[in-house]
């Protein structure tokens, strides 16, 4: 396998300048570099991930079957989050007028804080919507792969068929962490029960809901992430004298150890997650997990070891935390459902899908 790292992209999804640079440079970069590489390696298929699908209409001229994995929402929502007016899951197919109204009421756009010059700038609104329309148009040029049944249903809403093939997730490091539960259980006699949050510190991910729900419970919360909500969360922790700490993000290799050192994982997203990786990792590590009843989180949380709560419901989340703290024993029987995320199973499904297309057109 040869990997080419030639595409020009913005390097900071939380920066306006970086996002504009990505929007301008990225489509041309994909087209240019793909046209260079194809004559050299003579691929049987071309497979886009994420927003690289924007190049599909142009690259159709290469006469190769085009595939695209839809793992997030930029091709289905101009804001990229399908969070309608910043209040609830979106149920509509967007238009420029609906987007302008929705954007005006939202706290965030992508991972950026939605400041006044985003909300009321007609040029930025038109640019963002136009970029979404290009991505949306490109869907019809590709054989689509959905990473969850939830994403598959969203594509059907816009008359696009797709095959569900989840992301690869190597659960082995988390299974190793599972073996350390007994050590943690022994330590727990002299320490507070620990709750773990992993994710961006933005409102749509719900860290503020976790902190509110943990108020009054004898526990410690450790939050790992960065985002525009960080100062507000720090202030809330100090004001309410919570035993909670915000840590910078850690490398992926260190995450299994975080699971090993915790008792309960909380996944409080209030936007419709397209996949739900945290729930899978938590189950592999043998940890009880609480997740919001939205998006694909329902698919990835096993009801035998996980608890689903209404999104944004602080009272229900508090009750779930109290219930989850009683479930900090070793969890069994998770190997089989987790197998579908293995590299072997996912790649086998992808290759089979490629072969079907090459054989039948």
Query: Could you estimate the helical fraction of the residues in percent?
Result: 40-55%
Q: Which structural class matches the secondary elements?
A: alpha/beta
Average pLDDT level: 87
User: In percent terms, what proportion of residues is strand?
Assistant: 5-15%
Low-confidence stretches: 329-333
Radius of gyration (Å): 21 Å
Topology as a string of helices (H) and strands (E): HEHEEEHEEHHEHEHHEHEHEHEHEHEHHH
Strand ordering within the main sheet: 11-10-9-12-13-14
What is the count of β-strands?
14
- Roughly how many Å apart are the termini? 25 Å
> What best-fitting shape do the alpha-carbon axes yield?
globular
What's the level 1 CATH class of the largest domain? Alpha Beta
Q: How does this model look, in words?
A:
Helix 7 crosses helix 12. It contains 16 helices and 14 strands. The chain is of the alpha/beta class and 361 residues long. It folds into 2 domains: 172 residues, 3-Layer(aba) Sandwich (Rossmann fold), CATH 3.40.50; 168 residues, Rossmann fold (3-Layer(aba) Sandwich), CATH 3.40.50.2000.
Question: What topology does this entry show?
Answer:
Layout: H1 16-41, E1 46-49, H2 56-59, E2 66-70, E3 83-84, E4 88-89, H3 96-105, E5 108-109, E6 112-113, H4 116-119, H5 122-138, E7 143-146, H6 149-157, E8 162-164, H7 172-178, H8 181-187, E9 193-198, H9 207-214, E10 219-224, H10 230-239, E11 244-247, H11 255-260, E12 264-267, H12 277-284, E13 289-292, H13 297-300, E14 306-309, H14 314-324, H15 335-338, H16 343-360
Parallel strand pairs: 1-2, 2-7, 7-8, 9-10, 9-12, 10-11, 12-13, 13-14
Antiparallel strand pairs: 3-4, 5-6
Helix pairs in contact: 7-12, 9-14
């Amino acid at each position: 396998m040869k990997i080419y790292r030639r595409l020009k992209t913005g390097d900071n999804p939380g920066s306006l300048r970086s996002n504009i640079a990505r929007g301008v440079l990225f489509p041309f970069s994909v087209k240019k570099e793909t046209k260079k590489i194809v004559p050299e390696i003579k691929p049987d298929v071309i497979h886009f991930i994420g927003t690289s699908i924007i190049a599909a209409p142009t690259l159709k001229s290469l006469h190769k079957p085009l595939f695209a994995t839809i793992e997030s929402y930029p091709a289905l929502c101009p804001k990229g989050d399908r969070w309608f007016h910043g209040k609830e899951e979106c149920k509509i197919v967007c238009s420029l007028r609906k987007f302008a109204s929705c954007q005006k009421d939202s706290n965030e756009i992508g991972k950026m804080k939605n400041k006044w010059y985003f909300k009321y700038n007609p040029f930025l609104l038109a640019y963002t919507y136009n970029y979404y329309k290009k991505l949306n148009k490109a869907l019809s040029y590709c054989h689509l792969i959905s990473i969850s049944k939830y994403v598959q249903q969203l594509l059907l809403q816009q008359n696009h068929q797709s095959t569900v093939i989840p992301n690869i997730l190597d659960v082995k490091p988390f299974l190793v962490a599972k073996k350390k539960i007994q050590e943690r259980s022994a330590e727990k006699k002299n320490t507070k029960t620990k709750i773990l949050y992993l994710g961006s510190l933005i409102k749509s991910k719900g860290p503020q809901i976790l902190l509110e729900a943990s108020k009054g419970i004898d526990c410690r919360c450790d939050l790992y992430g960065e985002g525009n909500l960080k100062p507000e969360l720090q202030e809330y922790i100090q004001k309410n004298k919570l035993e909670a700490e915000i840590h910078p993000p850690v490398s992926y290799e260190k995450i299994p150890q975080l699971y090993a050192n915790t008792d309960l994982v909380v996944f409080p997203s209030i936007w419709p997650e397209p996949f739900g990786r945290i729930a899978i990792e938590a189950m592999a590590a043998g940890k009880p997990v609480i997740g919001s009843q939205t998006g694909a989180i329902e698919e990835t949380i096993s009801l035998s070891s996980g608890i689903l709560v209404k999104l944004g419901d602080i009272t229900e989340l508090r009750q779930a935390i109290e219930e989850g703290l009683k479930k900090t024993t070793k969890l069994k029987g998770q190997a089989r459902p987790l197998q579908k995320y293995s590299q072997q199973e996912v790649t086998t499904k992808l290759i089979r899908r490629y072969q079907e297309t090459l054989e039948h057109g």
